[in-house]
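Okay, is this right?
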Amino acid sequence: MEVRINKSKLELVEGDITRQDTEAIVNAANSRLAGGGGVDGAIHRAGGPQIMAECKKIGGCPTGEAVITSGGRLKAKYVIHAVGPVYRDGRHGEPELLAGAYKYSLKLASENKIKSIAFPSISTGAYGYPIRNAAEIALSTVINYLNSHPEIELARFVLFSADAYVLYETVLKELTKA
């Protein structure tokens, strides 16, 4: 699915984030930038040791923020490591922290003149964020940012499963009346 937000394109695709041809991909990282399972592990495996070496130099990243490294062996030139919250009950700042992870990622893209960026569904795997709530936060945050930042020409959400894609599609239609 694809919609226009101001001058930008917002896309939803089902697939593998490590294979995206966007200038940057977003990693659902942990605060130690130590690699891990899921999206994080897949990006480090596909991108090679250079990404981990750069992460070690950076040292860490607070929850709700993001840092940037090169893309190593990936098609993407950059990896933006965004740290989403571990979900407890939604009443411990999780929505604000999740929105922050997306906002920081987009801000880094703008600052680095990145025109295309691909996101996973941050915090919905091992961190346990309910995917419907996460999709609402993710999509509304990105839509709000794109409305005032036309320098980002493409924001793509890469969903790992058909179920996640359908859920994101439903939320996107609700938010944009598409």
